[in-house]
């Protein structure tokens, strides 16, 4: 077991801080780790409805008011801007960095590859370089870099559950290729500059104020408009859906345990480097997921009791870049941190439906 570090009184730099996972992480840090100094960056791009990002930012500011000993600094800008990233590192000297900023989404990477190279490769490289130079002149720099990878690195892995020991050299989308590249780049930096880094392969994260580009959110929008939802691979898709609070809890555990710095027999550092899956370890059939979503949308009064779902559902073939199943082997996370997601799909979708009702004032 790695030595735990306390997050209280630390300066934590979160990129993608008003993103879905990032904003929930910032809220959780303020709620549970005060006093804590959080610096967040986000370019607030319009890949999806910016008003959701603004809502999340307002939630963070509201939460901050309850923690007068903590601080929250928000920088609107891009991690691809090297000068800006260096300036933030010089000014705030973060102890822990959590890189969640990225161009997400598998399908969008087919039509908009540039965004992925900029945020996921150039941006991540800037973060790595800044972590490296945080140690210059014998200054105690970044203690731990935690960064988002993705279950999409498993591509069309036949073996389930997906284990971090599986070979993941055959990405089926540019998005997946950038995430796998992040793991490779982090490994090189961990080895060369002894930077403790942990990559987290997230599995289909959902919850309130989630991403409108994800299926459950898109389905809800369409059903509300009376449109037909398309269920890919004729519903024979399985996803290891993970509730956002579980993800954030997992990230928080991992942040506290940087991989240990050790030298090998050659006197050179053994890279302080780890990669974990964070998923539910319980894949759900897409059709079952949709059924629970429907029930919860009715319960939250987003949709009327007599909604005719059957006439708004279309079963269609698989989309390019998609995979039929995602299923996380989460044994290492449980072994090292005693952590396992605990939110049921029904509870998670209930909270999503209630948030949706309120946010869109349905
Ligand atoms: N949500 C999931 O199911 C899931 C699954 C696997 C991996 N991930 C990864 O987790 C991380 C967070 O995902 P999320 O679901 O919160 O997505 P998100 O899109 O809500 O959050 C990412 C945030 O990063 C910001 N951003 C994008 N490019 C940027 C740049 N160049 N500079 C600064 N900010 C930038 C966006 O504005 C956004 O607010 C991402 O790295 C994503 O690839 C998410």
Descriptive labels:
362 residues; alpha/beta; Rossmann fold; two-stranded parallel ribbon; 11 helices; 40% helix; globular; binds nicotinamide-adenine-dinucleotide
Walkthrough of the structure:
The protein is α/β, with parallel strands linked by helices and 362 residues long. It has a domain at 11-207 and 244-280 and 328-341: Rossmann fold (3-Layer(aba) Sandwich), CATH 3.40.50.720. 40% of the residues lie in helices and 16% in strands. The strands form 5 sheets. It has a 7-stranded parallel beta sheet with strand order 3-2-1-4-5-6-13, sandwiched between helices. The protein has a two-stranded parallel sheet with strand order 7-10. A two-stranded parallel ribbon has the order 8-15. Strand 2 (37-42), helix 2 (50-64) and strand 3 (71-76) form a beta-alpha-beta unit. The radius of gyration is 20 Å and the shape is globular. The termini are far apart. 46% of the residues are buried. InterPro entries: Epimerase_deHydtase, NAD(P)-bd_dom_sf. Residues 12-279 form the NAD-dependent epimerase/dehydratase domain. Pfam families: Epimerase.
**Cα end-to-end separation:** 48 Å
User: Structural class per helix/strand content?
Assistant: alpha/beta
User: How do the helices and strands follow one another from N- to C-terminus?
Assistant: EHEHEHEHHEHEEHEEEHEEEEHEHH
CATH class of the domain at 11-207 and 244-280 and 328-341: Alpha Beta
CATH homology-level superfamily of the domain at 11-207 and 244-280 and 328-341: NAD(P)-binding Rossmann-like Domain
Poorly predicted runs of 5 or more residues: none
Bound molecules: nicotinamide-adenine-dinucleotide
CATH topology of the domain at 11-207 and 244-280 and 328-341: Rossmann fold
Beta-strand content estimate: 15-25%
Mean pLDDT across the residues is 95
Mind describing the biggest β-sheet?
7 strands, parallel
Gyration radius, to the nearest Å?
20 Å
Helix content: 25-40%
Give the strand order of the largest sheet, numbering strands 1, 2, ... along the chain. 3-2-1-4-5-6-13
**What is the count of β-strands?**
15
DSSP summary: helix tally = 11
CATH architecture of the domain at 11-207 and 244-280 and 328-341: 3-Layer(aba) Sandwich
Please state the overall shape, judged from the principal axes of the Cα atoms: globular
Domain NAD-dependent epimerase/dehydratase: 12-279
Protein name: NAD-dependent epimerase/dehydratase family protein
InterPro entries: Epimerase_deHydtase, NAD(P)-bd_dom_sf
Keywords: NAD
